[in-house]
Each structure stands twice: as C-alpha cells, then as structure tokens.
Amino acid sequence: MFVTKSKDAIGGLCFLGMKISALIDQDISLTEDDVIKMSEDYSIINWLDAQNVIKEWDVDDRKILAEELCSAANVYDSRKFVAENNGIAVLLAMIFLIIQSGGFSRTIDDIR
After folding, report:
1. What is the C-alpha to C-alpha distance for residues 108 and 112, in angstroms, rounded to an integer?
2. Fewer beta carbons below 10 Å: N end or C end of the chain?
C-alpha cells in the first residue's frame, strides 16, 4: 500500500530511512551482526514493525522489503558501506543501497 502501489517508491524508501534514523535519537540500537542476521532470516521486518517504522506498509510491501534487505545483507561489506559500529547506521546504509539501485528490484509476483 505505502510503497509499491504509489508512484514514488523512492520517496517511500527515503521516508523509511528518516524513520529508521529517528531510532538513533530514541537510543534504540542493534549491532552490525544483528542487522545482518535479521536481514538474512527476514526477522528484520518484525523488528521494524515492533519499532513502528513500517506500520503503514502492507503485507506485500513488507515481503518485498524483506527480500531487498536480505539481498543487501548478502553483499554487505563494512568498507563499502562505511558503517560498522552501529547496526542502525548499517540498516540505513542498506536502505541507501536499495535507493541507489533505483528502488525495489523485484515485484511481489517475483517472490511468490
């Protein structure tokens, strides 16, 4: 609903980045390893939901985001991402990677 069905998926991902960055201000943290592991096993979506970061996102958007974050985690290199001491910064770097790649690289039909 929020991202894939709008004409501005990049804007939706930027808004997601702003909401994630607000977690730092709330002293919410994860380790780099937590973010990578949770992205690879898709549990990052549940964590983001528990933080009220993706409450506007529908099920399909969440599935696509989970796939994109898993892909980003699989290519993660702290030297390239220039973030390694703060898991929230790593998560933001992964969102920026998705944005830099032009947004979502797949549709819900690709992952069903």
Report:
1. 6
2. C
- Given phi > 0 = left and psi -120 to 50 = alpha, else beta, which region is 4? alpha
Q: Could you tell me the residue ranges of all domains in the chain?
A: 9-106
Interacting residues of 60 by C-beta distance below 8 A, sequence separation 6+: 4, 108
Give the SS3 label for residue 55: coil
Cβ atoms < 10 Å from Cβ of 10: 16
What 3-state DSSP class applies to 8? coil
Instruction: Supply the DSSP symbol for 52.
Output: T
Distance CA 101, CA 19 (A): 20
pTM of model > 0.85: yes
Q: Is-contact 1 56, C-beta < 8 A?
A: yes
Mean pLDDT, the chain, integer: 89
* Candidates 3.40.50.720, 1.20.120.600, 1.10.10.10, 3.30.1160.10; CATH matching 9-106: 1.20.120.600
